[in-house]
Amino acid sequence: MRRRRLRIAFLALPAMLGSVLIGTPPAGADPVESTSTAGSAHSHHDHPESAQLVRIGLTGADMLDKVVDAGFDIDHGLKRVPTGIEGEAVVTAEQITELEAMGVKILAEDEGFEWPEEADGGFGAGAAAARTVQPLSHAQTVRVVRADWFTTKGQGFLYVEARTTEGQQASPVVMMQLENDSGQGSSFGFARTMSRFVDSGQYMFHRNLFKLDTRPSQIRVTSSTGGVTTGSVSNWLEDAPPPLTENPGYQYDFIDGYKHPQQLFSRAEEIARQYPDIAQIIYLPNKTNGYQRKAQATIGGTGQAAVVVSSAAWGHEGGNDVTVEFVERPGADLPLTVEVAGKAVRVLLAKDAAGAVASTAAEVAAAVETGSQGLIDRAHPYRTNTGTGIVVPTSGPVALTDFLDEKRVGAPEGEVPRGPATVPVLRIGKHRDGRNPGVLIQAQDHAREWVPATTTLETAERLVRNYKTDKDTKKIVNDTDIFLILSNNPDGANYSFYNFASQRKNLTNHCPDADADPARRNSWGVDLNRNYRVGSAHDGYAGGSFSCISGTYQGPEKLSEPEAENIVWLVEEYSNIKFMMSVHSNGGQLFWQPGAYIADGRITTPRPPMGDEAFYWQSASRILSQVKAYRETVVTPENVGGSSDVLYSSAGNVREDLYHTYGIYAFGWEVGGSIYNPTTGNWQGGSFQPPWVGDPALVSGHSETMEYANGIMEMFRIAAEWGKDKKKPTSELVPGGGKYSGPVDVRFETSEPATIYYTTDGSRPTLDSPRYESTDFREPGQVFHVTETTTFRWFSVDTAGNVEKNYDPENGNRNNYRMATITIGQR
């Protein structure tokens, strides 16, 4: 049975928020501000401002959105803490003042939230004496969401999430205490207070992460309001099968450094030429804006007398040759006129009866636009100025420039092509005719994220170079159809390599005059991962901005950008694409749907059915186990799940669109993230462009490329197995049908990730019947408290579309569904 496209039904469902990361400009990155003042002969490039790394504290997601809308680059690496959000930012002294005025707290070195290292004393004698242990039931007030044990760099860690039905209380705040045993058969001890997390006014859960010498088998969580529960500890990323890199003769480690888009695309085309039997290039139909800009100058400072001019031609096509000069002539009662000689625009300023210059900035701008004979496309007062000031004559012609430095000192060699770019897709597979499940890997939506591109290229090299010698690779290539976009944002990536290392967006400038002067040029562009159709900020979802200079600017409308249109074209043209991973950096998360929420009430986009959710978790465990196998890097459970739960709301992201519109299992991956340093006992954070070579145990671009390529290869294996899956799932009602003397709690269990459709009204179950849901997000399936005799009828469907017992839910002629009757009041 083919998997149906999901209908969008935006429901009020709870969600939570996890950690995000601040983009830190690398050393030497160009700053934002630049102007040409009166008296300057030429426009000039920026001079670095004095910036510093500061730790910041935000009260919550609402403040985060406001700060981002104000133009601050805060989108990665922040972490959710009980008091709101904490993180880092590289800012100037002036920007620190702006942040403080917005209510952002600048944290001292010793401030900020840390997981406690030592056991605490619990709630105190009074609270402890009042507690009584309550039996578990459907109505329990405290639940263990997850308790995961993992090891990294020789150290053991326990991560716990728990939830209380009374957690929404604000005053008094519900405290929860965690106790764990020290191994099978031991008593509870080692108490810790768990931190309560709230986002957008909604309680998410309590949680804790701490180091332990011995793996516990059970934990006990106690609420200050009296609820108590116990839970078993599970292994996180343990006992994983060996990665492909351990196969005899397997080749890997092909990438020797960061690659700009021209290098990436050239190598993709070369691979297709070298391996024509298993590889080809697909050229996406919509060309990008290109690494090109109009030539500009801001003349006359930044006051009411300032004028911003922009060429009609792209800078490299003649705009950079244009000059503008404001000229004072001798005499009185002279009109404002414009002369053009070749590429030189001379503005002859008006003079009043006393012989004084009388042209305002607004008048000059209008005259230049109409009188430049097509050389100047836009001329306007500076930003929001009305242009009432009298302009000052320049000391000579002011040269316009597009500010593009494709030959900047220290940048990679080679001149960047300036025109619109065509993005190639490297397609790898023995059978590229639609018979096999397609897997789309999309890297570098965000320009400054360099590791995703090298990670994706490394996987391509592994596939083609090991195909003839490694049986596991051959199986992947024979059984899947792989589509690799090495850089989905080549214009922005070139700008990141050659101009402004922290560039996030593409190079399409939708800004009005108020934001269109060259001092804003590093803030122009559209966030491609906010430009899609589902859960968009245009529909009221949080995390996408309407400000054209915001780092999360969503564009003027949905799918306004060719880069986003190309992805839609690709999945519609190749309908066999069933898996997708959008590779980003550097937060160290792996996530899926829901990806966005409406802030008021945290109303998320629809959550996946339990079967899909379980499949995502199962796949994540396999993928992340392969990452860990390289150098023991652990992506922790708190950073895995629905992206609006573990990261933040990202309205209009690509994953949401592909899953809900086309039924594609769409993952998002923030590679990199924190690495545990056993020497210091701390977690070391990553960066967008870490040193390519460094301590192999800590943060480096090379190590991240290798370990996350392991993960992507595992995703290919998952897709290959999914495509061959013909095994039908099985399911049970636990404890099952029978006679009971009183009310009983029952739940469903499945043999594999599968979605259950059921009825209790005597009707035949279909795909339109109620779905078995989880108790809450990140929790197991719901418990039915049965108080009267009830008959359950149900069937299960796995993620590959296999239906239990080959039942046909659409055809009413067959009734081989599952059935169980719970009879209450008899034994």
TrEMBL record:
Q: Which species expresses this protein natively?
A: Polymorphospora rubra
Which residues belong to the signal peptide in this entry?
1-29
Record's GO cellular component terms: extracellular space
The molecule here is called: Peptidase M14 domain-containing protein
Q: Which Pfam families match?
A: CHB_HEX_C_1 (PF13290), Peptidase_M14 (PF00246)
Assigned keywords, A-Z? Hydrolase, Metalloprotease, Protease, Signal, Zinc
Q: What is the lineage of its organism?
A: Bacteria, Bacillati, Actinomycetota, Actinomycetes, Micromonosporales
Under InterPro entries, the record lists: GH29D-like_dom (IPR059177), Peptidase_M14 (IPR000834)
Family membership noted in the UniProt record: Belongs to the peptidase M14 family.
List, from the UniProt record, the residues annotated as the active site of this protein: E670 (proton donor/acceptor)
SMART domains the record matches: Zn_pept
Can you give the residue ranges of the Peptidase M14 domain? 380-712
Q: Which GO terms describe its biological process?
A: proteolysis
